[in-house]
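ok so for the tutorial part 2 we go from a plain amino acid sequence to predicted structure tokens. step 1 is just haveing the sequence, like this:
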Amino acid sequence: MKAVLHVATLNKAIGLETGYGPIETVIHGLDKGLHNLGYRSIVACSADAIVNGEKHETVAESLGAYCSANTEAAQERIGRHLASSLARSRSGDIGVVHMHEWYEHIYSGSFNPSVPIVMTLHVPGSDSGMVDFHDRHPATPLASRSSVHWVAISEYQRRQYAGLIPIAHTIPHGIDVDRYEFGAVPAPTPYLFSIGRITHVKGQDTAIEIAKRSGTKLILAGCVQNKAEDRAFFEQLRPSIDFTVDLSDVPVDASYYDRVMKPILSSDKQIVYVGELNDASKKYWYRHALATVFPIRWGEPFGMVLIESMASGPRCWHSARVLCPRSSSMGRRGSSWTPSMRWFARSVTPGTSTAAPPGSTWSAISRSTSWLAGTRPCMKRSSVGIAWVSLAASGRGPGRRTASVNRC
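step 2 — the prediction. this is what the tokens look like for a chain of 408 residues:
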């Protein structure tokens, strides 16, 4: 049996779940899904990674954080990683290579495996650098490589790449819902939860305004990446934050709610920043929240927060600039809400019930055990379906069965 070779990113170590690492989470899920289905899954990754299938170690350690690849030392490590991955792809037992970045190395000829490549896109088209690539290399159009099969993660993102590259498939991300405990009832002390990297386009300032207008406690979680604009944005938020506590290294066990969450929730501090949460701790904060707030300002390619929140229980309030039609349609019982801050604040105020005016651009995906019972398997199939389509895109996988696995 030919194997799938996943060329992992180096931002964070695969499988460690130490904080922000959306692409690493996807790679870990694909590897696990393929391995559980009985396929050979090989991950070319740093030695500190944890995988389910086979492991091909390329470098000793990951870079440790996003936005840390711009140094000479980091580029040298990436070069060694790609060289070792390329050598592994030519061993004769690989049927398809799955990548998530570094398309420029493919088109420069420095990464040229003899088997097809599936390239999953993770960023908006405007942030991909492809327009600049076209300008610098007009004789080498991105669409010219027939061996590369481009995969979008939402129809919204697919439209962003129109005219740049031919998209072979649109395959939404999935999560392993068995790892998310569903909380049908929020905590006795109601709070809003906002999680994501701290940056202007994620709208944490709007989340704070919603909390203040509704009189509801807000828990802010997320990393501040090594970008000048993100650090400046966090400084703008700082005067509105009533209390800061770093929970990134706090152990998570059965006592986490009583030991860590309850003292914070019972305090008189309204806007609380808890730093970057790891995978285990964020599930507690999702599960007990009154609602998850996701007021983004950009064309979100997917939005893992949405499906993580749905798998955990709380309603998720988000702006329309995301793959909202897909997420909301999964809910069936979701309702639309106006972009007006007044309506939005009232809708999350405990004890109030506000019907949404027509033509609104906010959407609420409501807490509903019966609804989630139908969609949780769908979300899980989506994760496995990515792996099937990754194989099928090259004509080497299980073919038509892919659609039935992935279709919700």
